[in-house]
Amino acid sequence: MNIAINIQNLNYAYGKYVVLKDVSFCVKRGDFFIIIGPNGSGKSTLMRLISGIIRSKTGQLDLFGMPMQGYNRKALARTIAFVPQMVMVEFPFTVSEVVLMGRSPHQGILGIEKREDLEIAKQAIAFTGLEHLSHRKLTQLSGGELQRVYIAKAICQEPRIMLLDEPTASLDIAHQIRVMDLMETLKEERGVTIVMVSHDVNLAAMYGQNLLLLKEGQIVSSGFPGKVLTYETLEHAYDCTLLVDDSPLGRFPRVTLVSQRVLNLPGRSKSI
Amino acid sequence: MQFSIREGRGCAVLTLRWYQRGVLKPAVMIVLVFLLCPVLQSNARVLIDQMGREVNLPDDPQRVVSLAPNVTETVFALGQEHRLKGVTLFSNFPPQAKAIPRVGSYVQLDLERIVALRPDLCIATKDGNPKETIDRLVSLNIPVYAVDPRDLDSIMETILEIGDILDARKEATALVNRMHSRIQNINVRVEHSTTRPSVFYQIGISPIISAGTHTFINELIVLAGGRNLAHGPVPYPQFSREQVLALSPEVFIISSMSRKAIFEQVKREWSKWSGLPAVRNQKIFLVDSDILDRPTPRLVEGLERLTRLIHPELFEETK
Amino acid sequence: MNTRAPFVLKRIFVVSFLLLILLGVGMFLGLSMGSSGSGMSPVLESLFGARGPDSALMDTIIWKIRFPRVLLSALVGATLSLGGLVFQALLRNPLAEPYILGISGGSAIGAITGILLGFSRFPGVAAAAFAGSIFTLFLILVMSSGQSIIKRDSLLLSGVMVNAFCSAIIMFLVSLTRDSRLHNIIFWLMGDLSSGDMHQVGILAATVLPCFCLIFFFSSPMNLLLMGKETAQTTGVNIKAVTLILLVVTSFAVSATVSQCGLVGFVGLVMPHLLRLLFGPDHRVLVPACVLGGGAYMVFCDLLARVLPEQGEIPAGVITAMIGAPLFVFLLKRSGR
Prior knowledge:
- The complex is a heterotrimer of chains A (272), B (319) and C (337).
- In chain B, 38% of the residues lie in helices and 20% in strands.
- With 319 residues, chain B is of the alpha/beta class.
- Chain B has three domains: 1-40; 41-171, Rossmann fold (3-Layer(aba) Sandwich), CATH 3.40.50; 194-318, 3-Layer(aba) Sandwich (Rossmann fold), CATH 3.40.50.
- In chain B, the strands form six sheets. In chain B, strands 6-5-9-10 form a four-stranded parallel beta sheet, with helices on both faces. In chain B, strands 13-11-15-16 form a four-stranded parallel beta sheet, with helices on both faces. A two-stranded antiparallel sheet of chain B has the order 1-2.
- In chain B, helix 5 packs antiparallel against helix 6, helix 6 (169-191) packs parallel to helix 12 (298-310) and helix 7 packs across helix 12 (298-310).
- Chain C has helices spanning 7-32, 40-48, 55-90, 103-116, 121-143, 152-176, 180-190, 198-217, 219-226, 229-234, 239-261, 267-279, 283-307, 316-335, and strands at 33-34, 37-38.
- Chain C has a two-stranded antiparallel sheet.
- The model of chain C is unreliable at 1-5 (pLDDT under 50).
- Chains in contact: A-C, B-C.
- Chain A binds chain C through residues 48, 51-53, 73-74, 76-78, 80-82, 84, 87, 89-94, 96-98, 101-102, 104-105, 107, 109-115, 118-119, 122, 134, 150, 153, 157, 163, and chain C through 1, 3, 6-9, 92, 94, 216-217, 219-220, 223-224, 226-228, 230-231, 233-238, 276, 280-282, 284.
């Protein structure tokens, strides 16, 4: 099945407040798919719909050819893993305990770990560079480390699709690159389809194979970064002035924010 | 004469109702009781207690546990304290009772302590003793005889019954006769009074609580020639200060318990209300609650005390 | 991590074994000590067949009076600790305790109504208390079903409101009563472990033990629930079903204990935290730990409640707080949090 996610005519509203209007798109298997857009564009809602946290009454949502309703919860968890933005945890689980919980969709009712589960967890911890922290409690970790724990746990689910909700939102630049590189490695080595919501347009440009630009619940543009990230589409979506040129690092766009002061400098035209 | 006969194995116990004005002669009663209740030589007998339960009683109980302070008092009054091996926490009269081992309070009995005393008989009261504990005692093969004294009549009945089960029938009859004659005395005196003063009897401090119709206190007040201002269906009605003032009691009685100081304070507070007839005529008194509230022989003493307070004029010719 | 044997099973066994020993010691001491005297030899004699002159009496005291009580304490401690654990997981709130969802209020009103109507303690008042708490649980579920049941705040708030309202009604009813039944009400509100004989304790055991087993099977989902609603859902937990089942089963067990012996406070709040400090937050270990450790704790507390005062006994809820609070603070300090 070549299409990982197939969405047709998806609508969603919170009560009377319409969040997604007639959204249709596809995600190919093994793709690095990044959803961008301003606040309130419906990105998070879309993410929740894809992960199964909320269900829409209208429209079609197929995963690898089978409709969402056809998956039971555990089967869904073995197909899609979700990494939330940031969660406050009051209870002092250790890193290894949390990562092991990711094996739950593959386990029986009591969740007694088998040798194989422990192996997979060990690998996930190694993959995310957390070996030296495996006995540390969650409450003692930094933001970046916590994010990696959730990723390691998601990896343990052995999903075919990895969903990440603004994974770089509260990370420093080093950790941002680290997480994105992790995802890229996951995609390359294991063929996992990566679907991500991001607020960072440049990271999206650098890593994304296919982008989706949303505004007010509707698709503004979709396709490869060069197509989606033009100053017309971006200024329309974000309603602010931006400079778009080619990145010196490769064949993808570079987006630069323009401050009011720079705009008003004499000798510069408004439209760049 | 009204009587009921309860039959046990080989023994008919005659219990009699006493009218307030006392038509019966005590002597006749003594004779009848002796004639109709032969002493048996068997080791145990079955009686029906005041709650209708069948109880297997030993003939000569040597290890009795009293499950209420009024029962303790009664046993002492019958001179049978040598049989008592355990009493409840507030068995404070007579003073010798304080030396007997405690088995918890009468609303929270200590099952273990009772059992450890190896009783051959327990005497319980319906009002207060938790039924579950009684049932458990019975299930451990300990006979429990329950009494339910609700008024002067049934108190005297209770004394006779306790006398019967403790092999002290003579003492019981004598005690009851003494009580009866003292009550008669009061009745006769009160007949001569022309007034029926209104009486307010205060039990609780805050809120103010008095005693309704179905209490000992009411019965005593009526017998003592007074009018209970709190009469009514509610056994312990609450009053606000305003209501009490509106009732204008001519006699005010404050029931006091061990810590007297507090009740003195209460008396002082009421004494400020000079509008009250009781205060004007200096008829506001403190009385020890135990003699007015416990269903024991001392209730007669309480009656006498009360009559002296309500109708002092009836006692002019000193006795 | 021990990759040889399943790691968590080993931990479960070790923890359970330790706490089982503690429970055993507690029960033995509980049988040896009481208001009529203390001594281990009568218990040993009774267990191992030696017969002395006082044997029959001691047998009665030990097995007919103390044993039901010790057993009841263990069951109550186990149920309340487990109840606290489950509610803390379901509501993701460390302040949750087993009575929080209206159980204390509803059962108290049921019990007081039963007492005022003159029912006997068992089965009358017990049944009334049970009915009361199930009714309030139902009320709360209905009240918070407008929002999704997994929205923990609505459950919590509904529970707090119902409890507050019930407290007011209880105070009102208590203020109207002025006879010996008032004593019964107050004892019930403070927790009364002296109430049961073997028959009643047996019924309670038959009611709550299956609940323990059922809750144990949900330990893994409970772990995930603590990681966050969305994380749990996307790791394969059916949050709605798990929440509802755990809620009903736990409330059922807690209601059964309340109907037998009234409200015993503090155990359900502090035992889960205590055990978590000692054994970690994994519910697969904590569920048996709460059952055995909570039971042991209650047995010890009841022992002190019976033996410390010269006359009468300290109410169950009082002693659990007096012992538990300092113990918890001590452990907290030691864990260096």
